[in-house]
Amino acid sequence: MARSVLESTQTIEELNAIVGDPNCERELRCKAVLSLFVNYVPPLVSINEIPKILTNHSWLGHSNIYQWIHIHGWTHHNFRLGSMFTIFLFPSDGFIEGPFFEWKSNQGVSDYLLTLVFDRHFPVDYTSREPEYDASKKLWNVLSGSNLADTRLMEFSVAHPNGGTELFTQKGLSVY
Length: 176
Description:
- It contains 4 helices and 7 strands, in the order ααβαβββαβββ.
- By secondary structure, it is α+β, with helices and mostly antiparallel strands.
- It has one domain (42-175).
- Strands 1, 2, 3, 4, 5, 6 and 7 form a 7-stranded antiparallel β-sheet that branches.
- A hairpin with a 5-residue loop joins strand 5 (152-159) and strand 6.
- The longest helix is centred in the N-terminal third of the chain and has 15 residues, at 26-40.
- The protein is globular, with a radius of gyration of 15 Å.
- The protein starts with 11 loop residues before the first helix and ends with a strand.
- The relative contact order is 0.21.
């Protein structure tokens, strides 16, 4: 059986403290966010449980978030467009402000990626650039459990700097 390189004995409290500490090294904070998911957020979890685990959401404000509304090619994930988000954790060249509807060539680069797939589609209003349609705000609402009691995290993946990817589904862990 495959094992994640992010398996940890650290507690939820310890990992959240690292995530929220701006004085910690970037790599340590990235690994702490990913370790929270790998060790404490199982696939099929209700989003009502996620705020109990991710008690510090500050990392979302320092990460770039992309909502998948178009795809060309292949992905590890089984998803509907609008139900998947990729988070570029603590990008080394800075945070990009504003709506993140489409891929931008100047997007903040991060060697740590977290992709989340939910069991529902989050619609995009292509005619508006208002903050409520921003992918980061949408994801914040999802992770904080805002009015989405019936929503579940179906699967997620972690992309590592070495190029490896770990996919966590209800069937277990797959390593690519």
